[in-house]
Design brief:
The structure holds two protein chains of two kinds. By secondary structure, chain A is an alpha/beta fold. Helices cover about 50% and strands about 15% of the residues of chain A. By secondary structure, chain B is mainly alpha-helical. Chain B has 20 helices and nine strands. Classes of the chains: A alpha/beta, B mainly alpha.
Chain lengths: ~350, ~625
């Protein structure tokens, strides 16, 4: 029996009300999560936002910063407040893939027969901290490829699914480059965001000293469960993206390519490779989270710009000249963002 | 829900919800943006358009356009610029996405309208992701308020009143300027009074045209054609004068000058100097007793005496035709042979040369009667030439009369500055306080004291010419060559000029006076020496005359020393007359360097002639 007009209208209204409630719940949960993390982490507001954004986008994060900035601690805090099972890998040059993924070991069954048993490695956790990832050998780094992309480990002809949700939060130190193995482009592309941990300012340092040297430690609560994290990830996918906005994201990605940018002479000079399509995916998915946080149901140009640095900075590969001259990729990207026009932009009709 | 042109809001028949026409909103925003862009460009180009409008108004004024025309042109430029900018803005009208994005950006809407337009166009049935439907509902709810606040969100640029005033000032400042409104008196339109004078001058020209009838009595096609064209030019000049009202003095004089130039061209075409002989032949002819008078007449280019002499030679040849040898035919043959031996090739082409060469060959062949006939034909040719020369002279006079008419009409309005004649300082006035009220030569009621004098010279008989003179000058025909008149004047004036530096013809310099020696006060001068005084006083006066400076409302005059001439110092009786005549001669010579119209120049020369004649008569 077909529904009447008012019934359709009512059903539709209920659907929209439900999704509106979900969007509001996401924003509220995100803020609660962030507030709880900030009980332990001083400052780093943007960094926490970026990390959480990447996690709700089902992406992995590469944290870059000098030692002692609390990167590892951040991961531990996040895992605790999100109710995720943490795992940790401290990368060294002698770290083997099996040390991360797991290995087949000979064991005896209940009948005393020798059998191979797969001993799962530390990746079989919800939140994997790969500390100083650039100290692992390329072989070990490559072992993370399948893990990060497929969320599965294949060993002995058998595939083992990783727990869901699964996140990799890798850290690397940009200063001590001796004895390190810079991540290859393919590996970098697996990370949704690359977030830079900046040195805290004076007030933050004072607050750090106050919080970490006293008798009372931060009493962290678990704000979300892993199921809620998964639900939030699905909510993010419901955010709409208008064609002009998506086109703007595509323009940004295309503009990172040295031979496709129209006016970016600095990009042509210093950049060897631009961002991949995964960069556009990162932009749009990150933009969706930003739209939800702003209480909107559709991505705006501003959302893409907000996440553009985190989503693109590790996907723009400098050439030799850029490396030699110490060009800052963020500076290049900021110029690119300023130059790339969005729909409705233009000298004649710019409303400012 | 669907997009459709027309109103921004529609009712969805399926759901009963108020649906928004996002394309309609986009068009509305597009129109607003076009308007904004137009305002902005107008403001940007306003000053340049104003300058262009002012320039156009100036050009229109220069071309003689009236105030309405200048205003219309200025308005046309401004309006055209505005229309062009509007067209350019409309051609660059933004598309729906750009318009809505600009609206969003201005309202800080974070893509509310743009995304809604995109979602509505992509999923007409609302079948997109849940977020799209939610966004559409939110955008529909916000659309009416957005439409209402559109003028506030996308405000038109402020006009910039200071800029507008400046532009209006720039454009408006040029409008009042025109040829008729300029400070140049030549550019002023002639008034009603001058129009009457123009009509009077036109009538005079019509009467003067009758002299054309007397140019040629015998049939002469060339002269007939010249006379016909001269009559046309004259009629044109009369018409120009009749329609003088409303024209500027410059335009009137220009037209009349063109007519006068055409008349002069016709006059030159009527008779030129190519008919005569080369000086070598004339010199040789002068050496012979029979051809001496003919040579003199030819040398003086006087056609009538030459015709008479040719006729006399023809008669003599006829009388001596029977003689065997010697006599006039023989002598004339020898004279012609030796003279024509010196001829240049051009002489064979000339009228006189052709007849003389023909006569010489006939005399050499002893065909005396035929040679006599040749001289008779030469006499006829001379008579025709005389007639043509007379016609040429009358045409040139007519050309002068045309110019004179123009000067008479336009002169009083300032097209031609008032000319000043010699003013004898009145006794007791000593030049002090004289404001330079010279005696203008222009005719008309405004110029009292005009007298009509016959044009001097045998060829100008009957041509009425007017001569102006001052109230204190020579109404009685005398120039008082006494002490009042005797301007101390020497022969060795190094600069060769006298009078005021601004082209005034005559002394006294306005606002200045003459003094002899030192000790005079500015603006005054000692009386010139009495010509009947003792030789010592005259010699003293012959030293140096100084014109002292006097500042007046018309500016300061120059100081000039005039070296005295001892010639006048030692004489008692004739000295003043000589000084006066010499003075007039130099003044007349100085006339050549002054920018005086030709008609007036002629009048002034006649005036000088009359002065000299009376001066001589006074002796």
């Amino acid at each position: 029996m077909p529904q009447s007009g008012s019934a359709r209208c009512g059903a539709r209204f209920m659907e929209e009300k439900a999704i509106e409630d979900q969007f509001a719940e996401f924003a509220e949960g995100f803020q609660r999560l962030k507030k709880e993390i900030q009980k332990a982490i001083v400052g780093y507001d943007d960094l926490i936002t970026d990390v959480l954004t990447a996690m709700f986008c089902q992406g992995h994060v590469l944290l870059e910063g000098v030692p002692g900035l609390g990167k590892t601690y951040l991961v531990q805090v996040v895992s605790r407040v999100m109710g995720l099972e943490p795992g940790r890998v401290q990368c060294t040059p002698d770290l083997m893939p099996a040390d991360i993924l797991g290995t087949q070991i000979v064991n005896e069954d209940e009948h005393g027969r020798k059998i191979f048993h797969f001993e799962k490695g530390p990746v079989f956790r919800n939140l994997l901290l790969v500390d100083e990832i650039n100290r692992a050998t390329p072989k070990t780094q490559a072992a993370l490829l399948e893990v990060m992309q497929e969320c599965a480990v294949t060993s002995g002809g058998q595939t083992y699914r990783l727990p869901s949700p699964f996140f990799v939060l890798a850290t690397q130190n940009p200063m001590e480059m001796e004895g390190t193995y810079p991540l290859p482009e393919a590996q970098l592309d697996r990370f949704l965001f690359k977030v830079r941990a900046l040195f805290p300012d004076r007030e933050a340092l004072v607050e750090i000293s106050r919080r970490t040297t006293g008798p009372a430690q931060a009493n962290l609560e678990t704000v979300l469960t892993s199921e809620e994290v998964l639900r939030f990830q699905r909510i993010v996918s419901e955010v709409g993206v208008a064609d002009p906005v998506a086109a703007y994201g595509a323009d940004l990605v295309l503009a990172t390519h040295p031979h496709k940018g129209q006016e970016a002479t600095d990009l042509r000079r210093y950049v060897a490779y631009g961002a991949s399509p995964r960069g556009l995916q990162a932009l749009v998915r990150g933009g969706k989270v930003r739209a939800l946080l702003d209480g909107r149901a559709a991505v705006a140009f501003e959302d893409l710009r907000d996440v553009a640095l985190a989503a693109l900075r590790h996907r723009v590969i400098l050439n030799f000249e850029g490396e030699a001259e110490g060009i800052d990729v963020d500076t290049l990207l900021r110029g690119l963002i300023d130059r790339t026009p969005e729909a409705g932009d233009g000298r004649l009709y710019r409303i400012s | 829900m669907h997009n459709s042109p027309g109103s921004a809001e529609e009712v969805d028949s399926a759901t009963g919800r108020v649906a928004v026409s996002w394309d309609g909103l986009a068009r509305r925003a597009g129109r607003r943006l076009v308007l904004i862009a137009w305002f902005r460009e107008c403001r940007r180009w306003l000053i340049w358009a104003a300058i262009a409008a002012g320039g156009t108004a100036l050009a229109a004024g220069w071309l003689g356009g009236g105030l309405a025309a200048r205003l219309a042109w200025a308005g046309l430029v401004m309006g055209g610029t505005a229309a062009g900018l509007l067209l350019a803005a409309a051609l660059r009208r933004p598309g729906p996405a750009r318009a809505l994005a600009a609206w969003d950006r201005a309202a800080n809407g974070r893509g509310l309208l743009l995304s809604a337009w995109s979602f509505a166009g992509r999923n007409p049935a609302g079948a997109g992701v849940a977020g799209e439907a939610l966004h559409l509902r939110r955008a529909e709810a916000a659309a009416p308020e957005a439409v209402r606040s559109l003028p506030r969100i996308l405000p038109l640029p402020r006009p910039g009143w200071r800029l507008l005033w400046l532009a209006a000032l720039v454009a408006g400042a040029a409008v009042p300027f025109s040829r008729s409104g300029s400070s140049d008196p030549d550019d002023r339109a002639l008034g009603e009074g001058t129009a009457e004078a123009a009509l009077r001058e036109g009538m005079r020209l019509e009467m003067a045209a009758e002299v054309l009838e007397a140019i040629e009595e015998e049939p002469d096609p060339g002269a007939e054609e010249a006379r016909r064209r001269a009559a046309q030019e004259l009629a044109g000049a009369v018409k120009t004068l009749e329609n003088a009202e409303g024209k500027t003095a410059r335009a009137l004089l220009s037209e009349l000058e063109a007519r006068a130039g055409a008349l002069e061209e016709l006059a030159r075409g009527l008779a030129d100097n190519t008919a005569w002989l080369s000086p070598e032949v004339v010199a040789e002819l002068r050496r012979h007793v029979d051809t001496g008078d003919l040579a003199d007449a030819i040398d003086a280019k006087r056609a009538e005496p030459a015709a008479e002499e040719s006729e006399r030679l023809a008669t003599g040849l006829d009388a001596g035709a029977g003689t065997e040898s010697g006599g006039l035919p023989g002598r004339l043959g020898d004279a012609l042979r030796t003279s024509l031996a010196r001829a240049v090739p051009e002489d064979r082409e000339r009228m006189v040369g052709q007849h003389l060469f023909s006569a010489e060959s006939k005399l050499a062949a002893l065909r005396v009667r035929e040679a006599a006939g040749e001289f008779r034909a030469l006499a006829d040719a001379f008579r025709r030439l005389a007639k043509r020369l007379e016609g040429r002279k009358r045409m040139e006079d007519l050309a002068e009369a045309v110019r004179e008419a123009g000067s008479a009409v336009a002169g009083p309005d300032g097209a031609v500055g008032p000319l000043q004649t010699t003013e004898a300082p009145a006794a007791g006035s000593e030049g002090a306080g004289e404001s330079g009220a010279g005696q203008g030569l222009a005719e008309g009621e405004a110029q009292p004291g005009l007298s009509v004098l016959p044009a001097p010279g045998p060829e100008d008989e009957g041509r009425p010419l007017r001569l102006g003179s001052g109230a204190r000058s020579t109404d009685e025909g005398e120039l008082s060559p006494g002490s009042e008149k005797a301007f101390v004047f020497g022969e060795d004036d190094e600069e060769g000029e006298l009078g005021a530096p601004d082209g005034m013809l005559l002394a006294p310099i306005p606002g200045a006076a003459l003094s002899s020696g030192s000790g005079t006060t500015p603006g005054s001068a000692a009386n010139p020496p009495d010509p009947n005084a003792s030789s010592a006083s005259v010699a003293e006066a012959a030293q140096t005359a100084v014109v002292d400076v006097e500042e007046s409302g018309s500016g300061g005059s120059k100081t000039r020393k005039v070296a005295g001439n001892s010639e006048a110092g030692g004489e008692s009786g004739p000295a003043p007359a000589l000084s006066g005549r010499a003075f007039l001669t130099v003044e007349e010579a100085a006339l050549d360097d002054l920018p005086v119209p030709a008609g007036r120049r002629t009048e002034i020369r006649l005036y000088f002639e009359e002065l000299k004649r009376r001066l001589d008569g006074g002796q």
